[in-house]
Amino acid sequence: MKAFIVKLTTITIAIAVIGWLVFSLAFPEYYLPVLPFLLLFFYLATMGIYAYQLKMAKKDIGKFTRSNMLITFFKLVLYSVVAVVYIAIDNENAIPFVICLMLLYLIFTFFEVTEITRITKSTAKK
Asked: Residue 49: which domain range?
């Protein structure tokens, strides 16, 4: 878990730096003040979901497999609710928000799936 947290923190910091560069140099008019909070939300959600999935994979790989789709569904619902709430509050910046949300979703989901696949492969071999 410690290695995952280090990698997750590194990716989050890299995204923050890249986001700062993009929004300060290329697209300052599209900067969203909520972006750092969105990044923190994805960081915490990814860490929590990974910890739960890791616990499930170590207990029973069969149960992990069955619950993985349910977890993915609830994650999508949670992120969709965040998007709908933000768009309802600030519909003027809906397009930049949705683009940022989708990029963060893709990056964090790819990282999470890669790490959990690595863990489940090693757990299944044992």
From this structure: 2-125
